[in-house]
Amino acid sequence: MSFIQESSTEFDSARLTLVHPRDKEQQHPLKTEPLFNLPAMQQRLLQLLQTTLELPRVLELFFRELHGQMCVDGLEYRHESHKLNLALGVQKLHRCSYRMTHEGAYLGEVVFCRGKRFSERQLQILEALLGSLLFPLRNALLYRQAIAAALNDSLTCAGNRLALEQSLQREIQHSIRQRSDLSIIAIDLDHFKKINDSYGHAIGDEALKATVNCINDCLRAVDGVYRMGGEEFVAVLPNTAVEAALLVAERICRRIAGMQFAIDGQDIPLSASLGVATRRTDESAATMLERADQLMYQAKQNGRNCVVGESATH
Ligand SMILES: Nc1nc2c(ncn2[C@@H]2O[C@H](COP(=O)(O)OP(=O)(O)OP(=O)(O)O)[C@@H](O)[C@H]2O)c(=O)[nH]1
Prior knowledge:
Elements: E1 6-12, E2 17-19, H1 38-49, H2 55-70, E3 74-79, E4 84-89, E5 94-102, E6 105-114, H3 120-151, H4 161-178, E7 182-189, H5 192-199, H6 201-218, E8 224-229, E9 232-238, H7 242-258, E10 262-263, E11 266-267, E12 272-278, H8 285-301, E13 307-309
Parallel strand pairs: 1-5, 12-13
Antiparallel strand pairs: 1-2, 3-4, 3-6, 5-6, 7-9, 7-12, 8-9, 10-11
Helix pairs in contact: 1-2, 1-3, 2-3, 5-6, 6-7
């Protein structure tokens, strides 16, 4: 019967050492093994890991070095609030995990695994090498945060206009290469000014957040939702022909109208008008957005709380 090694340790940068009972027995500095030059590997990692700010790449470089030198079979990295869950190499039974922290800030959990037990000596070396990962990891997380702030609407967490432009360009290129359909849906809340005027701006903000959640619930993981500004949103649906996009738009329309949005027990009615555009041959992102917008305004003219679409073959 194999014994599965599971250990969980706090790795805090303040001391660049361990908060683990085992440490109490290890008052002396790390000694290098005859065939393993720890300072040289730390130096190499230091140089290697500062070549990129992309978190998956940082972890890949770190793992590649460890895999070659330390017989580590797999590495996992998790950070819930960053929605990160990465796995490299092969996942095996014996695992040791480290909660990485720096000045009180949580930097995620690193898990090493291998088919054979980790010896005490190997754990010491791994822990020393984690010191080389700490600052590149922190920098990569800060970089992700900065990118996310530049591309996300801070109120609703939907993508912003810049993110929409980038995503739509990317999806247009993809649809040309794959000869696949691409649809977008312009979504605008009805009489939103009345909600702000009647219940206040803060409740209006809550309504916008609830709307984004509602739209997201109607979309696939590959689709995206973006806030154009005010109470107008755009959903991007790769690989989606006009008929399917109309069904999705109808679903969003019904869900927003049926949403139980209540403040202090009082129901606040919400509805939206939607325009669906499927990309025509050679159509640019700007023209597609303009067309979806015009169709959405047609829905407003048709009495609101409805969807207007147009065939891609017009
Ligand atoms: N609470 C809140 N309100 C916003 C935000 N951005 C824009 N608004 C408000 O959204 C309202 C949009 O009003 P209008 O453009 O007249 O549109 P509407 O009242 O939804 O009417 P129709 O679109 O014609 O159905 C304005 O009152 C804006 O002040 C925001 O971030 N938070």
